[in-house]
């Protein structure tokens, strides 16, 4: 039996909530086996799975496809599915309709959308429709063009006050949790203290109610840029690369398949075939 959003909200101040992304059934099963509280089917699927340069090209159908796979792989973990770019921005009607479709077709427990006070009416309407909502503040990747790139948010007094106003607005609208991305630690701490919603940090320091990472980042699954806020717990890229190279070598040298990997047939049967 899966826990509800209200269950996790009641854990605020009691223990830290753990969350990781997943985009497929097997990864979701492994994350759940590890005892992680929540799984985010993020629109980061565009970057780390689908090969897009950013998240803007991700569609509702993409999110439903991957959300279904994750939900099929979980029995207990609380699954949150991102609402992609332009699935909620245009109108309250669009927001409720697309959130309902995601919830109904994936079987997830909540949806997540980016933006603060300007989208508070969308959050309120989705919650009123019976769908738990995670808000997303700070660095909002869907808005990187207007933010001037992927930068830490809330560093000036004006920006910090604006973020706190957004925290107040999405809390009032009914979001049970708020993702804070790339926010100074002290500001995230203040935000956590002033809201009854759970705060889930990604690059927001130690004082949030929970933490989330993209699993490919924390496993060292890919090469290239690693955000400052990521702690890598493994180096899967090098492990996989070495395994693939050994496989190629074994194929070329006919070392694979060996006897242990083949199936036999009776010699008498073979004689009759020649």
Q: Could you name the key traits of this structure?
A:
274 residues; alpha/beta; 8 strands
Itemize the secondary structure elements and their pairings.
Elements: H1 5-9, E1 17-21, H2 25-33, E2 38-41, H3 45-48, H4 60-72, E3 78-82, H5 92-106, E4 110-114, H6 120-128, E5 133-138, H7 144-147, H8 157-173, E6 177-181, H9 185-194, E7 198-202, E8 210-213, H10 215-218, H11 236-252, H12 267-273
Parallel strand pairs: 1-2, 1-8, 2-3, 3-4, 4-5, 5-6, 6-7, 7-8
Describe this entry's structure for a reader:
The chain has 274 residues and is α/β, with parallel strands linked by helices. The chain is built from 12 helices and 8 strands. It has helices at 5-9, 25-33, 45-48, 60-72, 92-106, 120-128, 144-147, 157-173, 185-194, 215-218, 236-252, 267-273; strands at 17-21, 38-41, 78-82, 110-114, 133-138, 177-181, 198-202, 210-213. An 8-stranded parallel β-barrel has the order 1-2-3-4-5-6-7-8, surrounded by 6 helices. α2 (25-33) crosses α4 (60-72), α4 runs parallel beside α5 (92-106) and α8 (157-173) runs parallel beside α9. The chain is elongated, with a radius of gyration of 22 Å. The model has no long low-confidence stretch (mean pLDDT 96).
